[in-house]
């Protein structure tokens, strides 16, 4: 669809919407179909034309970055997106960026951008759980709330945010917690940042971890990210997956351990061997809640880093960015204490 023409109003903030795909742009054969649709079928203009109310709060411009199911997100699209976000936010006449995204990896893209965006202007991610063609499609209200948040003076300097289902989540702590429900995005550990009250964003807390312009990471010259594999532990784990990660050239490994980041005794040797070869090993947990903390086991003495409250997929991102700076586990551990 062609953009509907709206005259820019000087008194309104300028918000760029970058579309990457997902259910929010999903199209199904009937309006009762909630799964089995094609994600990333509808272009950004069609999405925006469905929510004309956004033009009352901001001058909005849409741009298509990709149109994929986010389960197929790549480093290439991440870097393109991050570079575009930084380019846009560096312009004095751009006030905020909203990104539409599939929900499957939304938390990962949000945390990645939380660490590499070089601006304190608002960056907000949204998706949907019901396709755009469904009864009670949730995408339209999420777009409206996101633009309200983008236009809000309160939104600056809070890190990348997720605006879905009438709540505001912070990129670091948010997780997709349910495969189907519209209230899937939660921060079960540390809570929401705020609510949309009649569409107006109201903040109740802020993160204490460094983000956006206060991080040391810079993607402007990067062509790819270091390989980091996640290894999911289980009964009878024998370390073969860790060996495979090393053989495949991983520069880092996140071990999604049982309990508080525990490692099967039959898998330890493979991970010690990886660490001896200079591969940074991070201990995270497959348990959805609670931090992975330091350990009195030989693990810490071998230089394994503990992930705190970052889940394995987020620990992977911080480790990847950390590895663009250093492969000293002590320095990477400091980053896990900071971000
Ligand atoms: N609700 C969704 O967005 C899921 C659709 C698709 N798997 C994606 O993540 O893009």
Automatic annotation (TrEMBL):
SUPFAM superfamilies: Glutaminase/Asparaginase. It is an enzyme of class 3 (hydrolase). GO terms for molecular function: asparaginase activity. Keywords: Hydrolase, Signal. It holds the Pfam family Asparaginase. Residues 14-206 form the L-asparaginase N-terminal domain. The active site is at 23, 23 (o-isoaspartyl threonine intermediate), 103. One of its GO terms (biological process) is asparagine metabolic process. It comes from the Bacteria. Substrate binds at residues 70, 103-104. CDD domains: L-asparaginase_II. Belongs to the asparaginase 1 family. This is Type II asparaginase. It comes from Parasutterella muris.
């Amino acid at each position: 669809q062609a953009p509907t023409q709206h005259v820019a109003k000087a008194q309104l903030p300028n918000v760029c919407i970058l579309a990457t795909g997902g259910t929010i742009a999903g199209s199904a054969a009937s309006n009762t179909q909630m799964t089995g649709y094609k994600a990333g079928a509808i272009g950004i203009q069609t999405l925006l034309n469905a929510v004309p109310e956004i033009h009352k709060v901001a001058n909005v411009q849409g741009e298509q970055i990709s149109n994929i199911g986010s389960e197929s997100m790549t480093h290439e699209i991440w870097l393109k997106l991050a570079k575009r976000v930084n380019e846009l936010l560096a312009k004095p006449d751009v006030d905020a960026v909203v990104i539409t995204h599939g929900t499957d990896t939304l938390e990962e893209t949000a945390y990645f951008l939380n660490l590499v965006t070089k601006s304190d202007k608002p960056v907000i991610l949204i998706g949907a759980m019901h396709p755009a063609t469904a009864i009670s499609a949730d995408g339209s209200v999420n777009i409206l709330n996101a633009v309200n948040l983008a236009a809000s003076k309160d939104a600056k300097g809070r890190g990348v945010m997720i605006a879905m289902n009438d709540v505001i989540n912070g990129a670091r702590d948010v997780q997709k917690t349910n495969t189907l429900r519209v209230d899937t995005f939660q921060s079960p550990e540390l809570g929401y940042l705020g609510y949309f009250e009649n569409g107006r964003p109201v903040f109740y807390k802020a993160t204490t971890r460094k983000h956006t312009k206060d991080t040391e990471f810079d993607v402007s010259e990067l062509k790819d990210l270091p390989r980091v594999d996640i290894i999911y532990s289980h009964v009878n784990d024998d370390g073969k997956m860790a060996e495979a990660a090393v053989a495949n050239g991983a520069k880092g490994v996140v071990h999604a351990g049982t309990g508080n980041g525990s490692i099967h005794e039959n898998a330890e040797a493979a991970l010690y061997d990886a660490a001896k070869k200079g591969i940074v090993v991070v201990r995270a947990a497959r348990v959805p809640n609670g931090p992975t903390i330091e350990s009195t086991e030989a693990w810490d003495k071998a230089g394994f880093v503990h992930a705190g409250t970052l889940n394995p997929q987020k620990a992977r991102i911080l480790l990847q960015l950390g590895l663009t700076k250093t492969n000293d586990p002590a320095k990477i551990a400091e980053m896990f204490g900071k971000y």
